[in-house]
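Quick one, T. Sequence first:
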Amino acid sequence: MRIFIVSIFTIFLLLSCKKEESIIESELPTQTLFVVTEDNPNSLQTLEIPSLKLNSDDAYYLTNGKKLNEINQIVIYRNLMFIFQSKSFKITICTYDSLRFVSELDWSSDSRIPSSIAFPNATTGFVSFANDTTLEVLDLSNFQIARRIKTPAPVIHLECIDYYVIGISLKPSKLFVFDSRTYSLVKQLDMPDYPIDISIHPLKESIFVLCLGKGRVDSTEAKTPAKLTVISYPNFDVSL
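Structure tokens:
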């Protein structure tokens, strides 16, 4: 009986609604999702949300007349898109709204593999490398490298919390804290085996570090459980 009453109520509500008063709003703002294909070279396609209309043309090529070699990672900051091309040792920078080419960072001369980028302020980006013990500080006003910071180990991932830049390394399993105001390493912590990702609490109360455990990065090792490590902020102490 309850189901019947609900059904009658629903039908009545639908019939009584005008077109512009539909229960589910059909006029949702269109958003664009970027899709990377597996072909060689990779293509950057666009998918419109909520219509799910896929544009199979290479959006970057259509705008710039040039294809990207490969696409490993995309980071968006304000109206800039940073496209990582690790095998080519490059980061291509273009505008987010139009995909128009802005600049290119190229480390092919010394085969350094860019692994991550983070932005502690509106004018600065920190770039890490999977096979090098430096962070490079990128000036966003001219896309030039302003300075370099020595790291104890190669950093695979970066995140920011306020003016601090947090980095993790796989081997050794470490977390590094850099102060972007002084361009210096201010703290390092031992982590469980193979830290792979960082997430910041929405209220900036904690930092979460996902550690894979043994046997996943190096298959010759006996497997150990993955762990989630919680680090307090602003003290940067392991709390769990």
